[in-house]
Structure formats: C-alpha cells, structure tokens
Specification:
Blueprint lengths: L14 H16 L41 H11 L2 H9 L28
Length: 121
C-alpha cells in the first residue's frame, strides 16, 4: 500500500487493460453501422422514401357552414326570452351532470324581496 492508493496492489485494476477497454468501446461506437437488409441508405440523397402522411390527433371540427345566420335582433330577443346573461352565468357555475344522473328538482324563483315563494305587495 502506498500513500496515494490505499488498496493493495493485487486489488488495483490494471490501468492499461482499462484504457484498452475504453478505447475499444469508443472505436465500436464510432464504427459505421451496417446497412439493414432492404433499407435505403439514410445518407444517400437519391434514396427513395415513403410519402409523408399527416394525421391530426384532434377530432375533426364541424364547420360553421351548416349554421344559418341569425339576425342580431332575433338573437338578442331569444337571449332576453331565456332570461339574459344571468341565466348563462348561473348555468356556467353549475357542475356538469354525471351520466345517468337525474336532474335536481326545480326550486321556486326568488322574488324581489330575496325570499323564495314570497311576493311583494
């Protein structure tokens, strides 16, 4: 044992064998891979390649061409008949129903006093 290497000489790896092993691994990684049977050479610019096909991962979107345009006055009147923007805001706050679940029972609408079922004189 010496000061710089506490292992006994019989336990030390051979530095030359390790160096040769690393050199062999590096040369093997640098070697040109053999061409696969039936595959074109990827470095050959004249090699034929299959045509590129694009498939979107998103489902197709329905175009708006099928919808008939509605006059803005008619659209505003139908929104007012439904109850206006407050109805849409109330619907947006409600959770989506689970498949097969029954809708909740209807509650009486709140009057001007803020209490359900009471009318102001």
């Amino acid at each position: 044992m010496d000061f710089f290497n506490p292992l006994p000489a019989r336990c030390r790896p051979l530095p030359l064998a390790c160096l040769l092993g690393l050199l062999g691994a590096a040369l093997g990684a640098q070697a040109e891979p053999s061409a696969r049977a039936g595959q074109p050479d990827p470095l050959d610019p004249r090699a034929s390649v299959p045509a590129l096909v694009y498939r979107s991962s998103l489902p197709p979107v329905r175009s708006g061409a099928d919808d008939k345009p509605v006059a803005w006055r008619d659209a505003n009147d139908s929104v007012a008949a439904i109850g206006g923007w407050r109805v849409y805001a109330r619907q947006a706050r409600q959770p989506d129903p689970l498949p097969g679940a029954q809708p909740p029972p209807a509650t009486p609408a709140a009057g001007p006093s803020g209490h359900a079922g009471h009318k102001m004189p």
